[in-house]
């Protein structure tokens, strides 16, 4: 069974076509206003995981200061702020609460703020009764190492129950490819040049690829051997195909200029 | 075989000379590297000129099968061969944050180095982390320097069986893997000076750095 992937929410050619249903979860890591704006506009539901609300608020404040625009915060109101709230700043909490945004505190120690937000989305989907949202996580793969590995392992788990979960930052867009064959449509204005095939959370995988600068054919990839980091996309190749025998993380560098358009 | 670990290079009682931030003498001269090495596709021209004119070796290596980090470890290995003494312990500043594929490169490269290098630490302002090979480990904790959070990270393996002591949430013969339990955001316990970890396969251990510790 072959799976096809596109990331229209990051493509530079927005077009009129319906892009699908996206839920944006903002984590407590830095991001540019340009990236926030692009992901926000592509999403139908936006949630801040605890300190992610601080980041949202402060990024908008900083951008407003630069551009002197009207109250930017009102154009970027999340649908929900949720988590154990040990990071959420008092002033940020007050701002969103008085604006009428639900701020939900959940003390469950066996789940992270990210998991709590996915739970809220799952509940919303249950109530709505429609298709799953694709999830875009803003942040999660940079910062404290244990949090990075939590993102990697949690999305590894989610591969069985969620269709598409992307982790995006100003550096890269990444997601888990379950065992099998994958066709990834590449917008070369948005991504590259570097990319990587990352066998994390598994002992090894057997990989075959096409469309990359250094392709693999039935090659074993594992931490004690070959790991294809710093591979390259090829501008003349619109599709990358990856066949993997076990779950594999795929990552592509983001081109900063793409977000400015 | 039990391995013992300490990170005195991050302990709070160093006796560092205080350096003024403002108006100090030429700080660059107090921090001259012994070597700058890599493919040099990132090294800025003005930086390169500064160090070259100061007499620092700037070595360009175009080998496409090794990263800049690997090239530097290679230079160190060559130095050790020439000197003929014990191995240096390696401290990598950076490497575990930023572009994901570079983070995973650091994780997998240090995984490989466990067989040939004694101690290789990856340190950033967020955390200090290193690879624990299969077996038993005793980690001496300076609670002024590290914590509260820590993590046991089964990356690069299918699973490991873990037993621990000295943590807030200890494990006993517990299987840890990406499809099951992964102990991220565990906590050090201030009254516990040692953390012991027994792992059946190579495991990454990480401890949060306390910012205040570096200011003393």
Automatic annotation (TrEMBL), chain A:
It comes from the Eukaryota. Residues 180-248 form the Thiamin pyrophosphokinase thiamin-binding domain. It catalyses: thiamine + ATP = thiamine diphosphate + AMP + H(+). Keywords: ATP-binding, Kinase, Nucleotide-binding, Transferase. Pathway: Cofactor biosynthesis; thiamine diphosphate biosynthesis; thiamine diphosphate from thiamine: step 1/1. Its EC number is 2.7.6.2. SMART domains: TPK_B1_binding. The keyword Kinase applies. Belongs to the thiamine pyrophosphokinase family. PANTHER family: THIAMIN PYROPHOSPHOKINASE, THIAMIN PYROPHOSPHOKINASE 1. This is Thiamine pyrophosphokinase. The lineage of its organism: Eukaryota, Fungi, Dikarya, Basidiomycota, Agaricomycotina.
UniProtKB/TrEMBL annotation, chain B:
InterPro entries: Thi_PPkinase, Thiamin_pyrophosphokinase_euk, Thiamin_PyroPKinase_B1-bd, TPK_B1-bd_sf, TPK_catalytic, TPK_catalytic_sf. The keyword Transmembrane helix does not apply. Pathway: Cofactor biosynthesis; thiamine diphosphate biosynthesis; thiamine diphosphate from thiamine: step 1/1. Coiled coil: none annotated. CDD domains: TPK. Residues 135-203 form the Thiamin pyrophosphokinase thiamin-binding domain. It holds the Pfam family TPK_catalytic. Gene3D superfamilies: Thiamin pyrophosphokinase, catalytic domain, Thiamin pyrophosphokinase, thiamin-binding domain. Keywords: ATP-binding, Kinase, Nucleotide-binding, Transferase. SMART domains: TPK_B1_binding. NCBIfam families: thi_PPkinase. Belongs to the thiamine pyrophosphokinase family. This is Thiamin pyrophosphokinase thiamin-binding domain-containing protein. The lineage of its organism: Eukaryota, Fungi, Dikarya, Basidiomycota, Agaricomycotina.
């Amino acid at each position: 069974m072959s799976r096809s992937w596109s990331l229209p929410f990051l493509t530079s050619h927005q077009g009129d076509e319906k892009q699908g249903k996206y839920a944006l979860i903002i984590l407590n890591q830095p991001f540019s206003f340009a990236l926030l704006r692009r992901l926000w506009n592509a999403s139908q539901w936006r949630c801040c995981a605890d300190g992610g609300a601080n980041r949202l608020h402060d990024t908008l404040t900083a951008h407003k200061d630069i551009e002197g625009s009207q109250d930017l915060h009102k154009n970027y109101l999340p649908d929900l702020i949720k988590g154990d709230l040990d990071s959420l700043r008092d002033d940020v909490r007050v701002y969103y609460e008085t604006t009428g945004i639900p701020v939900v505190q959940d003390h469950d120690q066996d789940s992270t703020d990210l998991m709590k937000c996915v739970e809220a989305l799952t509940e919303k989907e249950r109530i709505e009764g429609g298709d799953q949202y694709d999830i875009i996580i803003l942040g999660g793969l940079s910062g404290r190492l244990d949090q990075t590995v939590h993102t990697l392992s949690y999305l590894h788990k989610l591969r069985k129950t969620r269709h598409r979960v992307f982790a995006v930052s100003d550096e890269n867009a990444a997601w888990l490819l379950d065992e099998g064959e994958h066709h990834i449509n590449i917008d070369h204005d948005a991504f590259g040049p570097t990319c990587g095939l990352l066998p994390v959370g598994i002992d090894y995988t057997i990989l075959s690829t096409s469309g990359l600068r250094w392709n693999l054919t039935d090659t074993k990839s594992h931490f004690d051997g070959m790991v294809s980091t710093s591979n390259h996309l090829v501008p003349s190749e619109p599709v990358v195909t990856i066949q993997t025998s076990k779950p594999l993380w795929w990552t592509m560098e983001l081109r900063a200029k793409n977000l400015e358009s």
